[in-house]
Write a structure and sequence with these properties.
Largest sheet: none
Number of helices: 4
Oligomer: single chain
Order of helices and strands: HHHH
Number of domains: 1
Structural class: mainly alpha
Length: 97
């Protein structure tokens, strides 16, 4: 659970930044994927999984989803900017050949 808490704090800190860094989409994707894997491991460990742990993970997932929803407009804008930037670079590279 400590690793799950650490990942969630990293996601929260990334979303709380006044201005998202250029590699924001990659960072967010990596952190969310790592959290997803950690949740799968926690839920797969049937010997240690208690009802309280299951409900805690479930609530934490809802809380994270709500946080992502609150920041959806900012996240979307950064993702669009990053996508447009990558497209521009690929077009530029195409003409450099």
């Amino acid at each position: 659970m400590k690793e799950l808490t650490l990942l969630e704090k990293q996601i929260q800190a990334l979303l709380a930044l006044d201005e998202y860094p250029d590699d924001f989409p990659e960072q967010l994707e990596q952190l969310v994927a790592a959290r997803h894997e950690r949740v799968k491991l926690i839920l797969a460990d049937q010997e240690k999984l208690s009802r309280e742990t299951f409900e805690d993970v479930q609530q934490r997932t809802r809380d994270l989803k709500a946080l992502l929803e609150q920041n959806k407009a900012r996240i979307r804008q950064k993702l669009l900017t990053a996508k447009q930037g990558k497209k521009s670079v690929s077009v530029y590279k195409m003409y450099q050949k």
